[in-house]
Amino acid sequence: EVRLAESGGGLVQAGGSLRLSCAASGFRLDDYAITWFRQAPGKEREFVAAMHWSGDTTHYADSVKGRFTISRDNAKNTVYLQMNNLQPEDTAVYYCNARATSLYWGNGTLVAVSS
């Protein structure tokens, strides 16, 4: 079964950290470009971070640059989003997608940051 699953969300105080995971089954993540998106209540889904399939290139939204880091563990077939210095405006459901010849989405994980 092909599946992409996010985990690691939760409630954290402002200034805290979380690490989100995006685990794949049924396909190899290192064959795909991986992108993290987020959707805050009442807002449209927005880009957060991306990694080229090779792992050599990463991109970040200006709002998270310097605070968030995307990485990949090929042995675990998992991509991570390390989020530091979280702020209330980071509160959202976070989604990962994997894109190559196919496109897969996970169901999201909720991150809530209290002030």
Would you kindly provide a written description of the structure presented here, covering whatever features stand out?
Strand 7 and strand 8 form a beta hairpin. This protein has no helices and 11 strands. With 115 residues, it is an all-beta fold. Strands 2, 4, 5, 6, 9, 10 and 11 form a 7-stranded mixed sheet that branches. A 4-stranded antiparallel sheet has the order 1-3-8-7, with no helix packed on it.
* Low-confidence regions: none
- The coarse silhouette is globular
Strand content: over 45%
Number of strands: 11
The whole-angstrom Rg is 13 Å
Number of helices: 0
Distance between the termini: 40 Å
Mean pLDDT level = 96
Largest sheet: 7 strands, mixed
**H/E element order:** EEEEEEEEEEE
Helix content: under 10%
Overall structural class, as computed from helix and strand content, comes to mainly beta
